[in-house]
C-alpha cells in the first residue's frame, strides 16, 4: 500500500504543490482543511488528484490550528507529517499576536502533540521561513545560515517574522523531548511561482499585484525561491536519510529592477518598477505599505543574502531559474483572472 502522508493546511499556496507532487509520486495523502465541505477551498485539491489519477489516494479531513486534539485523527496511521498550515500575510488583520503568533505557535504545538500520540509517524517536516532566520538585512554582514535566528522582530515591527521564529523554536523544543520521530524544518525565502489555488489573499500573489499595478517597491532586494522547489524540498527532507536540522530554501537574491526586467520580458505593458525609490521618500509613504521606519532603516540599501549550500549538499538539491518562476507566476495570475492580461 502507498505510504500515507499528512499535509496540514492542504489548500494553501505551498501545500497544494506538495499535495500534487506527493500524489504524482504515488503517496496516499491525508490533507487537513478547516472545512472539507467548502468547495471553494477543496476543489483545487480534487482537481489535482483527478489529474494525477489519484482520487482514491487523497483524503481531506477537518482540523483547525487552535482546536486542541483536532489533528489526532489526521496524523493517525501516517508515516510522515508535513506541517505547512500557518497564516501568511505581511500585515495583521487585528491583533498581531492573535492573528500571527498564537495560530503559528499553538497550531505547531497541537500538531506535534497529535504526532506524539501516534505510533506511526517517523518524521515531521515543518514549514518555517527565512523570516525565522533573519529579522533585518543588517543583522549581520555575511550571508545568513541555518545557525542564525531572528532576534530583532517584535509584535509591533515584524509580527509575522516573530511568529515563524517562535513556532519553529516551539517545534524544536518539543522534538528534543521525545525520541519517536525526527524533525526537519524547511525555511523558504520569499516564495514565487505559479499558483494552483487562484486565491488572491496570499502575500506572494499580493506582492506581484502591487508591483504590476502600482509600479513601485519599497525594498531594494528580495531573496526568492520557486514554490515548486519549496514543495520538493519538503518531500526530499521527508525521505532523505541525510536530512537533519534546518534548511534554508532560497534560490537567489534579486534587486527590484531585476525582478521587473524578468517580468517585462514577456509582459512589457505592466507598470513594473523602473527605478529605485529614494530612501528618504520611503520614510514618508513606506508606512502606508506596511513598512515601519525601523524596517526601512535596517533593510533599504542593505544587501540580503542566504547561504543555500546545506540543502544543496544534504538533499542533492538544484533550484529552478527564478526569472522563469516570476513569468510563470504572472501567467498563472492572468489565467486565474487575478490580474488583467497585458501582454
Automatic annotation (TrEMBL):
Pfam families named in the record? Epimerase
Q: Does the keyword 4Fe-4S apply?
A: no
Residues of the NAD-dependent epimerase/dehydratase domain: 5-244
Q: Which GO terms describe its molecular function?
A: oxidoreductase activity, acting on the CH-OH group of donors, NAD or NADP as acceptor
Transmembrane regions:
none
Q: Which InterPro entries match?
A: Epimerase_deHydtase, NAD(P)-bd_dom_sf, NAD(P)_dehydrat-like
Keywords in alphabetical order, please.
Oxidoreductase
Q: Which superkingdom, per the lineage?
A: Eukaryota
- The name on file for this protein is NAD-dependent epimerase/dehydratase domain-containing protein
Species of the source: Salpingoeca rosetta (strain ATCC 50818 / BSB-021)
